[in-house]
Structures are given as structure tokens and as C-alpha cells.
Write a structure and sequence with these properties.
2 strands; about 450 residues; 12 helices; about 85% helix; 3 domains
Length: about 450
């Protein structure tokens, strides 16, 4: 088996990459987000010579990529992705803050305070690393001037950090607090709306009852009016030939009769109320009289009740004594039966236990025999596979960095396509559920 330094380097980078992915997946499960450090785009560009990489031929690109470390490039890409995600998160919270103008939205944000000295040290390290890379090239003199200008340009914003104020970054805990606050506000509004709606419904129901009573009264008055004016054909002929005074006299008669009936109804209601009040007063007086006479009337009654109670207690004691004797006999009998039953149950349980153990031993023996056969088959297969792997390892050659990068790009493209397809499937499922619900509603109606 041939092993080259390049293949060893690739294997180490691949193992480190798998460890990184497992660490990132665990961190995603715990919902803990760690904001990355500030990126120095100019240092990254000069480190990998991205400006001139596009001008290279394929052979020069292969030779250039052969000098790179795959793990270093992966860390840089992950750092860029983390920074983009952080910026999106900060943009979201700042948009919410600017729209609502609520300072409480910034509670729970973690401040990012980077001192000028730390920024300067980071820039010095980046520039020192870039200068070491440039010293190995022939165009180091051409790159010294833009590097210094970019270095000064990267240092210039640090002087204005104090003017801009403190920067904030959002963590998942703060986002959860915002969501809980929004849900509480919505729930409170829903409760208020329901309370107001119930109050309005009660008022509308009372109004409906009032209008219904008025409507019934109006319909009854209308019927009486029609009966008063249009009883038969003679009334129709009279109305056609009557004068205004005759109609006025007839209308006054109807209104006077209506008011008389209303006064009579009010009088009847008043009399009913008065009679109910008198009845209530009479019942109250009767209760007072009974309460006053209760001391005289209940003395003899209590003595009779006490005598009756003692007689019933004596009868109950005699019956209890008889029942106690019967319970003693039945208790001894039931105790003997219980002991015999318990002995039989113990024997039965022991028999079942022995039977189950024998069955388990038989099943275990058969299972072990099957497992032995399966293990022998697996051993034979593994030996064949091991021989094949040994033969492959002797002829194995590690892939180059360019092939690894191409495979990595293909994997990223496939992951994006998979995410898009999952989203489309989710949207189609939602549409299908909505259509099924509409269909169910239409079928119900």
C-alpha cells in the first residue's frame, strides 16, 4: 500500500472535518449560537491570492491549489457562513427594533465590544501572515502598497466605533424571549377581543329580546286595529264613504279603548304585586310565630323521639351481635379457604415458573445455535471482504485537493437542491392539506 504525505494530509483533514461536523451538529441540537470574530476580507483575499487566481490557466490553478490546506479553507468557509448568519440575525432584530421602537427588544442581546488594541493585534497578525506569503512570490513589491492601504483602511473604522455606540448581537435565548413576548401580547389581545365580543353579544341579545317584545306588541296592536276597522264588508264600505270626522271619531275610540286596556293591565299587575307582597308578609309572620312557639311545641316531641331512638338503638345492637357471630364463623371458614387457595396458587406459580424457565432455556439454545450459524456466515463474508479490502488498499491512491474541492462543491449543490425539494414538498403538503380541508368543508355543507 502506497502512502504519500499528500494522502496523509488529506486523511487528517477529512477526519478533522468529520469531527467538526459532529461538533456543529451537537451545537445545533443544543440551540447555542456563538458569534464569530470579525472577518478581515482583505487578509483572506491576499492569503489565497483570489484576485490573480481567475487569470491562471488550469495547470497553474492545480499547482496553486496543491499548496493549500483543505482544513484551513474549510474553516474559512465555515467562518464566512457563520458571519453571514449572524448578520442576518442582527438585521432581523434591528429591523424589529426600528419598526416598533421598543427598547425592551434589545434585552438579552450580547454586546460585542472589541477593543482597538485587539483589532490592531489581529490586523498585525493578518498582515504578518500575508507578508510571509508574499515573500515567496516575485510580485511582493507590487503587493506591499495595497496591503498597507487596506491595513490602514481596516484600522480606520475602529476610531469611529465610539461615535457609533455599542454594537449588539442576538442569541437564540433573546429570540425565544421575543417570541414569547409576542405570543403573550397576541393572547392578551385575543382575550380582550373575546371579552368585548361576549359583552356585545349579550347587549345584542338583550336588544333582540326587547325588539321581539315590541314587535309582538306592535303586531297585536295592528291586529286589534284591523279588527276594529275592518271586521266585515260593511266596514270597508263605511271607510270608503266616511268623512274625516267619522274616521277621527273611530280612531279616537280605538285609542281610548287601547289606553283603557293598558290601564286595566297595569292595574291588574299592581294588584298582583300587592297581593304577592301581602302573601309574603303573611308567610313571614307565620314563620316568626312558628319560631316563637317552637320551644313549647318541641319539648314533648323531643322526649318521644329520644324514647324511639333508644328502642331502635337496642334493636340495632342485638342485630349487630348476631351479625358479629355470623361474621366470626364465616371469617374462620374464609380464612381456611384462603390458606388452601394460597397453597394451590403457590404450587401453580412454581409450576409455571419451572415451565417458563425450561421454555426459555430451550429458546436460548435454539437462538444460540442460529446465532452461531449466522456468526459463521458473517465471519466467512467478513474474511472475503477483508481480503478484498486488503487488495484495494494495496492499490489505493488518495485523491488530490482539486478533486476534493470539486466533490465538496458538488455535495454543497446537491444539499441545496435537497433543501429546495424539501421546501417544495412541504409547501405542496400544506396545499394538499388545505385542499382536503376545503373538500371536507364543502362535503359537510
Amino acid at each position: 500500500m502506497s502512502t504519500t504525505p499528500h494522502s496523509l494530509k488529506t486523511d487528517v483533514s477529512m477526519s478533522h472535518k468529520s469531527d467538526l461536523k459532529s461538533h456543529l451538529s451537537k451545537a445545533a441540537l443544543h440551540q447555542e449560537f456563538v458569534p464569530p470574530q470579525d472577518l478581515d476580507i482583505s487578509a483572506i483575499m491576499y492569503k489565497y491570492y483570489l484576485e490573480e487566481y481567475r487569470k491562471y490557466t488550469p495547470e497553474e490553478r492545480d499547482s496553486r491549489l496543491a499548496t493549500f490546506d483543505a482544513m484551513d479553507m474549510l474553516r474559512t468557509i465555515e467562518q464566512i457562513h457563520n458571519d453571514v448568519a449572524t448578520m442576518k440575525l442582527e438585521n432581523y432584530i434591528m429591523v424589529e427594533f426600528l419598526e416598533k421602537n421598543d427598547p425592551k427588544l434589545l434585552i438579552g442581546l450580547r454586546q460585542r465590544r472589541t477593543s482597538i488594541l485587539k483589532r490592531f493585534q489581529n490586523k498585525q497578525r493578518a498582515s504578518f501572515h500575508g507578508s510571509q506569503r508574499m515573500s515567496s512570490r516575485q510580485s511582493s513589491s507590487k503587493r506591499s502598497i495595497p496591503l498597507s492601504t487596506s491595513h490602514l483602511a481596516s484600522l480606520s473604522p475602529t476610531a469611529t466605533d465610539r461615535r457609533r455606540g455599542t454594537e449588539y448581537k442576538l442569541n437564540f435565548k433573546a429570540k425565544a424571549e421575543m417570541a414569547e413576548k409576542r405570543a403573550a401580547e397576541v393572547e392578551k389581545r385575543v382575550v380582550d377581543i373575546e371579552r368585548n365580543a361576549m359583552l356585545e353579544v349579550k347587549q345584542l341579545r338583550a336588544k333582540i329580546e326587547e325588539l321581539r317584545a315590541r314587535s309582538e306588541e306592535t303586531m297585536e296592536t295592528e291586529n286589534n286595529f284591523m279588527l276594529h276597522f275592518l271586521r266585515d264588508e260593511n266596514d270597508v264600505a263605511f271607510l270608503e264613504s266616511a268623512t274625516e270626522r267619522q274616521i277621527e271619531r273611530k280612531l279616537r275610540k280605538f285609542t281610548s279603548n287601547w289606553f283603557k286596556n293598558a290601564r286595566a293591565l297595569l292595574g291588574t299587575m299592581k294588584l298582583t304585586i300587592v297581593s304577592l307582597q301581602e302573601t309574603c308578609q303573611q308567610h313571614r309572620a307565620d314563620l316568626i310565630t312558628k319560631s316563637d312557639l317552637s320551644g313549647i311545641l318541641t319539648a314533648v316531641d323531643f322526649e318521644k323521639l329520644i324514647i324511639k331512638r333508644t328502642e331502635l338503638i337496642n334493636q340495632l345492637e342485638e342485630k349487630n351481635i348476631h351479625m358479629a357471630g355470623l361474621k366470626g364463623v364465616t371469617g374462620k371458614t374464609s380464612l381456611a379457604m384462603t390458606e388452601e387457595k394460597q397453597a394451590m396458587m403457590n404450587l401453580e406459580s412454581e409450576m409455571r415458573t419451572v415451565h417458563n424457565r425450561t421454555e426459555e432455556v430451550a429458546r436460548a439454545i435454539s437462538k444460540l445455535e442460529k446465532e452461531v450459524a449466522i456468526v459463521e456466515l458473517h465471519n466467512d463474508k467478513d474474511s472475503v471482504t477483508l481480503d478484498e479490502l486488503r487488495a484495494q488498499l494495496q492499490e489505493y491512491e488518495a485523491p488530490s485537493v482539486s478533486e476534493y474541492i470539486e466533490r465538496k462543491e458538488e455535495a454543497l449543490v446537491l444539499e441545496k437542491e435537497e433543501k429546495m425539494l424539501q421546501r417544495k414538498i412541504y409547501i405542496l403538503n400544506m396545499k394538499l392539506n388545505n385542499l382536503m380541508r376545503r373538500r371536507m368543508r364543502v362535503s359537510d355543507f
